[in-house]
């Protein structure tokens, strides 16, 4: 959870919501007003874990205890609650409340995001508010497009990643420098339609030997056989912090046509065992 004093830029970036007696059913008649603004967005560290942040700015002069914060949207399968509550939200400050997004839904044209917040004032009185949050950087739309492009792709062909790495050459040389090979298998489901895997891309940790964007142009239909594509990698660089700080380095980016999505990009995660093997291989390759 991130806490900071609200800057003028933050205060101006979202419309302030005045929460008074009318929105505070549990408050006493003399309860002082509360002014909050709320947004939902992703930090870089959220991408790999499908996380997001409910950012709440407290414009009032009261220190609040946020007792619950939930997020719902037509683009996600269920309402999710932040695990960062209960937690204090100081006067004139901004705090982020972490959450993990639910599975994607692709049958609604509009996101219709809603955040519900419950809080307690210093005098013990309570209040709630339900708002339409601002969505900086189109974070939720980006997640939605990734969810639905992958869902449409896997209606026609499922994606499976090998449970172990292979290497080229199979036996490591004295200097430890060999490429890591990762097999992705695409298996048609028998459903009508077609999908195309246009390319794979580098990550912050893994560089493809063919270049940062490898063209594949594999089209799959119900009549296609299962097809395995072997990706071959060398480390993107030999900087130890890339492993220590890794968030998305082992998510494999695929650019596809699927359903109504054209040139869409989504990433598939490797298993924990393969992730560990990639880290170990980078260390051996770099001589750490």
Overview of the structural elements:
The chain has 288 residues and is mainly beta. It has two domains: 3-134, Immunoglobulins (Immunoglobulin-like, Sandwich); 142-286, Immunoglobulin-like. It is 15% helix and 41% strand. It has four helices and 19 strands. The strands form four sheets. A five-stranded antiparallel sheet has the order 1-8-4-3-2, with no helix packed on it. The two termini are 33 Å apart. The model is unreliable at 5-28 (pLDDT under 50).
In terms of topology, how is this protein built?
Blueprint: E1 3-5, H1 8-13, E2 17-19, E3 34-41, E4 51-58, E5 64-72, E6 80-81, E7 87-89, E8 93-100, E9 114-120, E10 126-131, H2 139-156, E11 157-161, E12 166-168, E13 179-188, E14 195-201, E15 206-208, E16 213-220, E17 227-235, H3 241-244, E18 251-258, E19 261-269, H4 272-286
Antiparallel strand pairs: 1-8, 2-3, 3-4, 4-8, 5-6, 5-7, 5-9, 9-10, 11-13, 12-13, 13-17, 14-16, 14-18, 15-17, 18-19
Helix content: 10-25%
Using only C-alpha atoms, the radius of gyration works out to 23 Å
Give the structural class.
mainly beta
Largest sheet properties: 5 strands, antiparallel
Low-confidence stretches: 5-28
